[in-house]
Amino acid sequence: MTTSPLRIGLIGAGYIAAWHADALRAVPGVELTAVCDPNLDLAEGLAAAHGARAFGDLEDLIGAGLCDGVHILTPPDLHHPLALQCLRAGLHVLVEKPVALNAAQTQEIEDAARAANRRFHAGHNFLGLPSYTRLKREIRRGALGRVSGAEIRWCYPFGPLRAGPFGIWPLRDTRNLMLEFGPHLISLVIDLFGLPEIEHVALSKPVALPGAGTRPQGWRILARAGEVELVLILSLVETADDRSVTIRGSSARARLDLAADTLIIDAENTADLVANPLLRQLSLAGQHLTQGSTNAARHLTSFNRKSPYALSFRGLAQGIWEPVAQNAPADPRWSGSSAVAVMTALDAVLAKVDWPTPVPAKPSRKPAPSAMVIGGTGFIGRALTRELVARGNDVRVISRGRQGPFADLPDQIETVSLSLRDTDGLAQAMAGIDTVYNLARSTDSNWEDCLQNDVAVAEGIGKAALSAGVRRLVYTGTIASFDMSDPAATITDATPLPELMDERNLYARSKAECERRLMALHRKSGLPLVIARPGIVLGAGGPLQHWGIGRWHGAGAVRLWGNGRNPLPFVLIGDCVDGLTRCAEAKGIEGRAFNLVGPPILSARDYFDAIHDRLGARIRVSGGNLSLMYAADWVKFQLKTRVLGRSGLTRPSRADWLSRAHQSRFDISGAQAALGWQPVSDADTFLTGAVDQAGLLGF
User: Fold this and answer.
1) Where does the NAD-dependent epimerase/dehydratase domain lie (predicted)?
2) What is the DSSP letter of 567?
3) Is the dihedral of CA 463, 468, 469, 474 positive or negative?
4) Nearest residue to 224 via CA among 187, 250, 198
5) pLDDT tens digits, 58-91
């Protein structure tokens, strides 16, 4: 006799939804049947990948009767009402952390679950990590002795604090940062030791957000649970990854590395003299070797689908839905009562926080935009928008959300939430607009999605600009679309992009195709188009971990594209936005493209040497053999296409990899003559903006 699978739907189709979907696929007897998101395009994309049905409205999902339970993966301020709605409709719910905004809301969800005879679970995924299960087992069997203290750390860079996007939920209020990351710490405390008493909370390392006051990047919490003294540390600056649990007992010390899924137990032994410390270190080395080898083999055989993060979600999904399917008691790690305890402790933490809450500026007039910036909440878009305001323009920013990093400029900037696929809506939004800047880009993993989400969108924006009669459309392409593999070549503004891009990386290929189609609109229909191709943009608001320079391994190590000794096409953010505005203002340049690249001042190694000299941060830098990187990429391509059956991937090419090192030189005399553009050419002035004033480390 077979039983029907447990049918699960996802509410919210953002980044985290893909992890939940993959985890559900690994749980026997569970089937992903629906994905719901107001952005139907997102819902359809995720649903199609898993054979599920897409919905744009929760009522429609509920009415379809396709689900027995749901994962609520929306921004946290929607968790409480959505959970209540789903429970009252007879659905079990798993709610991503934080499950609500406070303990009272969480208790309401738990009460609603009990009233509906349904289950409410919290999405505390690290409680499902295999090494965490081993840690609990070792504590229960007394391997650590009597536990006296524990230190739990979440020290991991949170880039949006320094480089945006600044409109996301965690940055809207100081308390949101603790609600976003605190559950990782508190859920471990609750499960191991019970409800803690919060004794002290200290905040540090403030960072200024554009137009929205400051936020703390460091949190230090002292607490106690019975006889166990607790230190909880949250650090969001550019720091070495230390997401860990250290437990001290009378017999041994245990350290659980959440990011690596390893558990190391350091215990004394009974040997004498020299043998004692030797055996102790051999034990630690043996544990590291065994667990490291096991994890490496697991990654290799699963094609990296069993990373520690992926395993934590698998443990979460299995631990929650298997008991439901078997009508067994809920695992207390993720129960509603545990969720209430976690939020109770977070309430106690936040009650001790005294951090100024910025008061948004009140508008005195309605903006009258003459410029539109599409992609205005990104690094370049933010700087461009503020520069346009500084030059006396009101600006309409098109964004996916209604929140933007411009709360201090309500009289000059309006943020409009609009789908970039809505060509008619874009044309209406362009009414009365003189200049449109399109800085939008998609991040896709196959060419078909690039054509839909990037190329078609850029072409639609061009058609909307034609329909609205704007004076100038400035489109930002990228210098990455050039073949930069030849050190003897010089690229000018008149250098054409390669005709064949089939073997270039998706970003370079997609941007080049956007340019091609927009230029076709210019020639055929008179689209007043100017193309700007920024180089490697550095400066305040930009990330430390810039992938135009190399492949990053955390904040402290980078493998360069190539040997790192050739001058790179760096440009300061101020020079970049100055060039963009000049692309809009200069007369008679329609149909032309300009490479916004500074003069050859620094190599990659020069740049990292300057970071060390000026900031005291020695980043581990190694050269990358691009031929070997190409070979490894080719092997991965074969595995993905032949073993995993993935389609739409770009075939790797050696020239594409060599281009990443930016080996060709740029001649910007065309932009200097046509635009009057003069980027910084002095190395010390450049480094002042690129390093000293860039806030790269967050403190």
Assistant:
1) 372-596
2) B
3) negative
4) 198
5) 999 999 999 999 999 999 999 999 999 999 999 9
